[in-house]
Amino acid sequence: MSRKNDDTAPISAKKFMDELWRYKQGSVSRRHFLSVTGLGMATAAMAGAMPMLAVSRSAYAGSIGDRVSMATWPNYFNPANFETFKKDFGAEVQVSVFGSNEEMLAKLQAGGTGWDVFVPTNYTISTYVELDLIQPLDLSRLPNFAEKYYTKRFIEPGTVDGKVYAVPKNWGTTGFVLNRKKVTSNPTTWKEFWDLSKTSATGRVMVHDYQLTTIGNALKYFGYSFNSVDPKELADAEKLLLDVKPHLFAINSDYQPSMRSGDAWMSVAWTGDGLQLNRDIPEIDYVLGKEGGELWSDFYAIPKGAPHLDAAYAFINFLIDPEINAKEVSVHGYPVPDTRTTELLPKEMTQNPIMYPAKELLDALEFGAAVTLTDPLRAEIMARFKAA
Amino acid sequence: MVEMINGAVDVEFQGVTKRFGDIRAVDNIDLEVSSGAFVSLLGPSGCGKTTSLRLIAGFEQPSAGDVRIGGASVVGVPPYKRPINMVFQNYSLFPHFTVADNIGFGLRQLKPRLSKSEITARVGEMLELVRLQGFEERRTWELSGGQQQRVALARALINRPTVLLLDEPLAALDRKLRQDMQIELQTLQRDVGITFVLVTHDQEEALSMSDTIYLMNEGRIIQMGGARDLYDEPINRYVADFVGKTNFFDGEVAEIKPNGAAIRLANGRVLYGRNPRGGVPLNRNAGGAIAVRPELIHIVKANGSACLTTDVQTTARVKNRIFLGEQTEYLVMAEGFGDILVLASKHAETVSGGFSPGDVVSIGWEDSSALALENTSKGDHSTAVPVPK
Amino acid sequence: MLLLPTTLWFLLLLVMPLVVIAVYSLGERAPAGGYQPALTLAQYANLLARLKAFTNTLTLAPLGTVICIVIAYPFAYYLAVKAGRGAKPFLLTLVIIPFWTSFLIRTYAWIYILGGQGIPRLLEMIGIEDYRLIYTPTAVLIGIVYGYLPLMVLPIYVSLEKLDKSLLEVSSDLGANPVRTFFQVTLPLSAPGLVTGSLLVFILLMGEYLIPALLGGGKVYFVGNALVDLFLQSRNWPFGSAVAITLVGIMLAAITLYLTLVGRDRGRQDVSVL
């Protein structure tokens, strides 16, 4: 199906329904803030409404309970796998999708979530441990997890004080997407990204509604660390952001629709979105800033007080089964740090430079630091930037 | 005050028809309301009387014919440009205004604008006229039905309309109040000298208040005349039936007389009746009816000392007796006549001593008290001839 | 006596949360986010940092309300007074149908309609190039009017429907032309619906955050958005509470002012505007 022709056409009923359907599936970009508003409920309702899920009951039914509740990010799972899980284990998967780690943390801090499994990002796990919101994992109940198959740097953030609290889901990078037909210069750095925003691409650039990446990449403009909490450096970043703000198309983590429609020419973006956009519209490219930026990895973890503990373990173990995991990747498009799974992926994926960037680009990237999650100044700068 | 010009005509309908879809609410009506008159449009619901009123007010426009006010055609002229005001059924007072502001509403629409003091003064006059002084600042929902009625009247009169229209103005009042208001309306009309056109379904109301009554049915005018005309000279069975109570004896026209007709009843008995003034002479062998008002029938004890000398006489048995105070109503059964209603005056009751159900009585009436009428119950336009006065 | 439980519920459900927020607003943000007790007005001193959110809300909420009135009144009038017996249920259904779908989905649809492939693309066809709608205050206003119009139409419709139509005839009969009748009778008598609708729309708009978030692209920032960010992102509960208390204060003041103005206007006997 050629999307190129469609993209120049005005409103068509089909495109409109595509957009809505995409929205209904929750497959808006990762950490999309919409989730706050009940999008998660829409997704959960959809999963519940799947006819195939309706009656099947396996021998396991009853042993792990009839449901498992997961908090994750949009466009970050394969509903077909949930079907399989329900068929094999008798537990229905209920999903809430979230917009940011901050938001997920806020919900857990408020309590009473009822979640059994959640998907924290690397830099947040130590905070969850500190706040006593997460429980250590009994690895004997996760036979599919075997350290030797995993890339070490992607396991490490899951271990705090020698205890394993989380097992890797997948990893990714934060770069930017650009439409090469509209942006003809060839930006390769964050400096160029921000400068273009103020000049030839004015009114066409989007940044995330997310302090970590937006402030982090603004810090990169000055060559500071992505994770800086230094007030002076943050002041520089804030000044840049306030400068750029009038030129921005939007501050919005759901940048796919605007990139697809041609309204936006550039946007801060995550691996999977870059991959999906590039697959559908080849002139949209995904670029990692040469100065560096964020490397991240997401984990499966179990919050304190999970109501269906058995189901939580069964579900995590199920999802990191290489075969199931490969099916996950085929939908979300993020690389996994498990070699068994990678071996099952098609060549188009394993050789895709968006999923697996060149080593020198990767080396420049930093993991997000725990301090950024709770630093009040970063939070306030982001809020001021939005409120400006 | 509006000058009374003798013989001037305020409202005139010339062949007016009003259709709503397939229904002819008003069907080719001619009508004249002379200046200063108190005219009633009388008839059952659906007879076209309210539509006629709305045609005068301007809420409806005729489908055919001409509506003239003060001699000029007003077809197409909206209500707010007509020198006519109306008292609505249920009064329709403005709930967001006080009594004074309701009454002054019409004055506030005048151009050039009147001064506040003039409005206040004229509202005061009106309040006095309807005897509601001191009620200026009251809210309309605080008033009794009769008081609301008077506010509505004052509101409609304050602009000194050429014609005042009243749409069933007394229907919502209780009986006693209604009778008081009837007198009040009549007095008021005489005082202000404004032409009144009243719509009512209540024949008693029309009879007691108006100079001229248009009796309507099915969109047409059946008979027009004064109260006495309609009561004493109903031109057909429908009118006689609608206005007051009447005994009908149906049969076939047996003989045409110079001023009346003889009608043979089913039992072979022949009764005579005179033609009503303005009525149409009957045709021989056609259906017809003899109509006799109950108060014109004499009633005495059968074989008693008092003897009837009337033209028609028969014996009957009393079936029912209703004491009405000033009169007593008997329902009697006479062989060959059927049920007959008889009204005995207080005086007659004193003389006769009254009768009880089961009593055998003699009843009778004079031929001159009986009318020979067409048997139509519907109105026919050709018969709607004004009764010469 | 029977009223006692009701009063208790009222206190519990309405007043208690406000008290909690008021207490929070005097506290401090805990190091990892949330609230820690303190007694300081520092949060209120920092309110100016959200000035733009307040000015945006206080401009677009009243403006949106006014536009809703201007569009809703003629529609409700037509519906209640002019529409035929056949058209009325149909039109009423049209007003209500949007409620059958999630507000979120409907607003999401506007992203597409206002986006580059939507209305601007159609405008291009008639020669208007490069007209930007999505993520502008205009887009937010369109979303607001779209979303809140039924809430304005229905109360006005109900009050016009209840209006005794013979009063309009009385007015006409007494010499008022249609325009004067409208301002002297129809408008004052439908004022309750107008006031209800305006308050409903205005109050909800003051707390609105979904429409500016979706159609404003994070650039048209309402107090509601500031609150979401403060509670869900920065987890700065005390500052969030201070913003919320301020918003409640402004709303109360605005509503009081509005009702006073309306009350005075209705109290005045001759409301003739012409």
Can you describe this structure?
The complex is a heterotrimer of chains A (388), B (389) and C (274). Chain A is an alpha/beta fold and 388 residues long. Chain A has two domains: 9-171 and 296-349, Periplasmic binding protein-like II (D-Maltodextrin-Binding Protein, domain 2, 3-Layer(aba) Sandwich); 173-295 and 356-387, D-Maltodextrin-Binding Protein, domain 2 (3-Layer(aba) Sandwich). Chain A is built from 19 helices and twelve strands. In chain A, strands 6, 7, 8, 9, 10, 11 and 12 form a seven-stranded mixed sheet that branches. In chain A, strands 2-1-3 form a three-stranded parallel sheet. Chain A has a two-stranded antiparallel ribbon with strand order 4-5. In chain A, strand 4 and strand 5 form a beta hairpin. The longest helix of chain A is centred in the middle third of the chain and has 14 residues, at 231-244. The termini of chain A are far apart. Mean pLDDT of chain A is 85; it is low at 1-10 and 24-61. With 389 residues, chain B is of the alpha+beta class. Chain B has two domains: 9-232, P-loop containing nucleotide triphosphate hydrolases (Rossmann fold, 3-Layer(aba) Sandwich), CATH 3.40.50.300; 243-384, Beta Barrel (OB fold (Dihydrolipoamide Acetyltransferase, E2P)). Chain B has nine helices and 20 strands. Chain B has helices at 49-57, 99-108, 116-129, 145-157, 175-192, 203-209, 227-232, 237-242, 346-352, and strands at 9-20, 23-34, 38-42, 64-69, 72-73, 84-87, 163-167, 195-200, 212-217, 220-225, 247-257, 260-265, 270-274, 287-292, 298-301, 312-323, 327-334, 338-345, 360-365, 370-374. In chain B, the strands form four sheets. Chain B has a six-stranded mixed sheet with strand order 6-7-8-3-9-10, sandwiched between helices. Chain B has a five-stranded antiparallel sheet with strand order 13-12-11-14-20, with no helix packed on it. A five-stranded antiparallel sheet of chain B has the order 15-19-16-17-18. In chain B, helix 2 (99-108) crosses helix 3 (116-129) and helix 2 runs parallel beside helix 4. Chain B is globular and about 80 Å long. The model of chain B is unreliable at 1-5 and 378-389 (pLDDT under 50). Chain C is mostly helical. Chain C is globular. Chain C contains twelve helices and no strands. Chain C has a single domain (50-267), classed as MetI-like (MetI-like fold). The model of chain C is unreliable at 267-274 (pLDDT under 50). Chains A and C meet through helix 2, helix 5, strand 8, helix 11 and helix 19 of A and helix 5, helix 6, helix 10 and helix 11 of C.
